[in-house]
Design goal:
The chain is built from 12 helices and 12 strands. It is of the alpha/beta class and 313 residues long. The strands form 3 sheets. It has a 5-stranded parallel sheet, sandwiched between helices. It has a 5-stranded parallel sheet with strand order 10-9-8-11-12. The structure holds phosphoric acid mono(formamide)ester (CP).
Length: 313
């Protein structure tokens, strides 16, 4: 594996889940695999979990991790090929990625979408410019359209907590005060469908996700109906895709609460964090026995370790 940027196939997903569980039992079993190697963690956007869990994963493999908060500490990057750089951007991606390519053995990048330029975001333009110009193996730390390390951690968490071979997994839209990217929802749908779960996606009309990620899922606009008999409920806000980046609904009744789960008594609840308490999810759920959010966050370490070790090997 040279690039870890998306779901590839069930066989590789199963292999990564298995490896991550082995690392969870014995984090230092490959403690010299990355000896003498360096990973650059490049952040164009903020992060808590992704930043720290990936550093711990690299350290567990004996690898040096260097974090660059490019949005705050680097030069403003021009991304367009052939640009005449007579405005505010100081350094071209060709030059910056080329330099990073000579400093590191593996590059990892977080690059959120603009939520204004739909075609560039949909093509994962920034991630692909780094891939093209660095020449290195690349791990996505969340791109414009996918968050594959989060999704692998989510699949590990479902694997650990499922009570049946093919659980019913419901991805439900939740309210939010800001326009939020689609990456976590897209990626969760892509991985959960790819891993063979029985997936239902529920959201208000107008919040349809890009169909590239939802093929094979049931779409149900009635949230109560969608939640019935769920084994896992994944809560996430996203902005509209068709009316790109817009907030079309702020209906508070979409917030997940205990009352909403009355027809799903065994449902376990997931969220990637950070979460807006009592906007997306109620305190009673987050602090109650249904919540898997801390398990998901812990599994981010072993997801990153499994992906990184696959690249190193
Ligand atoms: N879930 C997640 O990616 O968290 P951070 O944005 O804090 O990295």
């Amino acid at each position: 594996m040279k690039y870890y940027t998306q779901f590839e196939n069930k066989s590789l997903a199963d292999q990564l889940i298995q490896k991550a569980l082995e690392y969870k039992s014995n984090p230092f079993m490959d403690k010299t695999l990355g000896a003498g190697k360096r990973i650059g963690l490049i952040f164009l956007n903020p992060s808590l979990r992704t930043r720290v869990s990936t550093q711990i994963a690299a350290s567990n493999l004996g690898m040096e991790a260097i974090v660059l908060n490019m949005d705050k500490e680097g030069w403003a990057l021009e991304m367009e090929d052939g640009a005449i750089m007579n405005q505010g951007k100081v350094e071209h991606i060709r030059d910056a990625a080329g330099v990073l390519g000579s400093y590191f053995d593996v590059l990892a990048l977080r690059a959120f979408p603009s939520l204004t330029n739909k075609s560039e975001d949909s093509e994962d333009f920034i991630l692909n410019q780094f891939i093209k110009h660095s020449g290195l193996p690349v791990i996505s730390l969340e791109s414009a359209i996918r968050h594959p390390l989060q999704s692998l951690a989510d699949m590990i968490t479902i694997d650990e907590h499922k009570n049946k071979e093919r659980p019913k997994v419901v991805l439900t839209w939740a309210p939010h005060i800001k326009a939020i990217p689609h990456a976590v929802a897209n990626s969760f749908a892509e991985w959960s469908i790819g891993c063979g779960h029985d997936v239902t996606i529920t959201h208000p009309e107008g919040y349809e996700l890009d169909e590239r990620f939802t093929h094979g899922a049931t779409i149900e606009h009635n949230q109560d109906k969608a939640l019935a008999d769920a084994d896992f409920v994944y809560v996430k806000n996203w902005s509209a895709f068709n009316e790109y980046g817009k907030i079309l609904c702020t209906d508070e009744s979409w917030m997940l609460s205990e009352q909403k789960l009355s027809k799903a008594p065994n449902a376990q609840v997931m969220h990637c964090l950070p979460v807006r308490r009592n906007v997306e999810l109620s305190d009673e759920i987050l602090d109650g026995s249904r919540s898997l959010v801390q398990h998901q966050a812990q599994n981010r370490i072993y997801a990153a370790q499994a992906a990184l070790s696959n690249i190193l090997k």
